[in-house]
Amino acid sequence: MTRGEYGLLIDYQYCSGCHACEVACKKEHEMPKGDFGIKVLKDGPRQSSDGVWEFDYIPVPTHLCDLCAARVDMGKLPTCVHHCQAGVMVYGTIEELAAKAKAAAKDKMVIFAK
Ligand code: SF4
Ligand code: SF4
User: Fold this and answer.
1) 3-state secondary structure (DSSP) of residue 75
2) What proportion of the chain, given as a percentage, has pLDDT over 90?
3) For ligand 1, atom 4, which residue shows the shortest CA distance?
4) Which ligand is nearest to the CA of 81?
5) pLDDT, tens digit, for every residue of 58-83?
6) Residue 43's Cα: distance from chain center in Å?
7) Domains in the chain, start-ordered, CATH in brackets?
8) DSSP state string for 58-105
9) What number does the ligand 2 atom closest to the CA of 114 have?
10) 9 touches ligand 2 (CB under 6 Å)
11) Cα–Cα dist 27/31, whole Å
């Protein structure tokens, strides 16, 4: 895998904050306490100056994320993608993910490239 060729498209509008991705990632990689391949952060509740309330859970891959290279080599999806019941994350090439993001053209959607 060439660095920067693949990544995750993260549509956190529908993230419920269940932490299943965190747990699955830690288990898959047998990470010690304190290490995470992905962390689910919480933003809010807070009110913007335009009166809109924001309250989001945002899954953020860390430097320890290897995009589940061993699983992907076996033809499987990254385990965070597989275990997210809300379908928040999509794995693919950056080109594929950028095309999906462009088609969606929405807030609360980011691409993690590795
Ligand atoms: S990304 Fe999916 S698995 Fe992770 S906390 Fe959000 S809803 Fe749960
Ligand atoms: S792609 Fe794999 S290593 Fe990266 S956050 Fe998801 S489960 Fe962890």
Assistant:
1) coil
2) 96
3) 21
4) 2
5) 999 999 999 999 999 999 999 999 99
6) 15
7) 6-113 (3.30.70.20)
8) EEEE-TT--TTHHHHHTTPPPHHHHH-TT--EEEEEHHHHHHHHHHH-
9) 4
10) no
11) 7
- The finding on whether 61 has its CB within 6 A of some atom of ligand 2 is yes
pLDDT at residue 1 is higher than 90: no
Interatomic CA distance for residues 56 and 16, integer angstroms:
8
Residue 94: C-alpha distances to residues 47, 62, 97, 102 (Å): 33, 18, 5, 12
pLDDT at 4: 78
- Mean residue pLDDT of the chain comes to 96
pTM of the model: 0.95
For the chain, strand residue ranges (E) read 6-11, 38-47, 53-61, 89-93, 109-113
Q: Token digits for 25?
A: 């990632």
Amino acid at position 17, single letter: G
- The pLDDT tens digits for 2-14 are 777 999 999 999 9
